[in-house]
Amino acid sequence: MRILILGADGYLGWPTCMYFSQRGHDVVGIDNYFRRNAAIALDCEPLLPTPNLIQRAKIWEKITGKRINIHVGDATNYAFLLKIFKEYKPDTVVHYAEQPSAPYSMINQEKAAFTLQNNLISTLNIVYAVKEANRDCHIIKLGTMGEYGTPNIDIEEGWLEINHKGKKDKFLFPRQASSLYHTTKIQDTDMLWFYVRTWGIRVTDLMQGPVYGISTDEADRDSQLVPNFHYDEVFGTVLNRFVVQAVANYPLTVYGKGGQIRGYLNLKDTMQCVYLSATQPVKNGELRIFNQVTETFSVNELADKVCAVGNKLGYNVNINHIENPRKEKEEHYYNPKYTGLLELGLKPNYLTDDELTGIFRKVEQYKDQINRDAIFRGIKWSAETLSGTA
Ligand code: USQ
């Protein structure tokens, strides 16, 4: 297939480009380098150095003989995006081109406004470009489990059937975000559902949990092909952060009581999930929603795992319960359903001690480059301290 990947320079974007390319598909990758530039501005660059996207594609081509077409540009620029759609006529578009960080969206008004503008306009532009260039193009959109929040009932896969006063109907599962970033993902879903109903486009919306890991079969082929591995408070996800903290002899930053439960998945499984969604597309006029996680953990459980593996590897890992900078439930019920992708053929890579050891071993190689100042800055959700860093 011809596949267009928006946000191709990201933690998920670049490995996804290689994953599809390796399997014989024509890949076009687009990125505006937002995250790269923001990480420089906030002094929180990824642990492992990553060449820019054009250079990465050249290295990939040299190793594999396979070409990934790269364009540096912004999905919120409609003229640019439409030109790409008309030139390549993609069968599938994967939308990762969003501001992906909850803390970033909470720093101040400017970053909140940027998050709203970037995430919603990029989604809108994709919908319009699909309408103009190829109405059959399958949109695969990265949503987030955070759209659902932590309700006191089981979380279904996207939809909920409601019986009300003797009548029945199916609705999007109730959503309640815990950051402005997560709110934009809810708004994306609403917008896509509107255009699915109105124009008959086809969309798969993937409700993904926090991703961890650094390794994929393709990335492991050359040190310059690694994904952007962030461990800082702004762009790093919790498990990746904990491993770096353990290696840096920095007490693990468990926020509050640590009873916050989320659904997690390995980076390798994100690749599988997106691939399975793309190769088994949904029909026109349908919004298909999958919960893209493979297992659930509390923050305390993750910290305990990192402690156990770290101590076995000779580190002296300590856990620090710090005041939670976020507003979230620290003890709650959590029972999401996540069978849809398993039914499509997902073979999960679970969080075993071996898997964690692999992340430790990689991080150890770059131990000297850990920027301790980036680990915790305390970007607060509370209204009293809106300025944060930056
Ligand atoms: N947490 C800590 N200590 C830390 C960092 C995080 O206790 O040092 C806690 C958070 O308070 C939260 C949980 O760990 O309860 C997960 O936090 P996270 O930073 O790994 O994930 P989050 O901010 O929710 O966002 C990440 C990705 C985002 C994706 C989301 C999926 O950055 O792009 O959408 O995971 S989900 O969390 O399911 O909404």
UniProtKB/TrEMBL annotation:
<dbReference type="Pfam" id="PF01370">
    <property type="entry name" value="Epimerase"/>
</dbReference>
<dbReference type="InterPro" id="IPR001509">
    <property type="entry name" value="Epimerase_deHydtase"/>
</dbReference>
<dbReference type="InterPro" id="IPR036291">
    <property type="entry name" value="NAD(P)-bd_dom_sf"/>
</dbReference>
<feature type="domain" description="NAD-dependent epimerase/dehydratase">
    <location>
        <begin position="3"/>
        <end position="291"/>
    </location>
</feature>
<protein>
    <submittedName>
        <fullName>NAD-dependent epimerase/dehydratase</fullName>
    </submittedName>
</protein>
<comment type="similarity">
    <text>Belongs to the NAD(P)-dependent epimerase/dehydratase family.</text>
</comment>
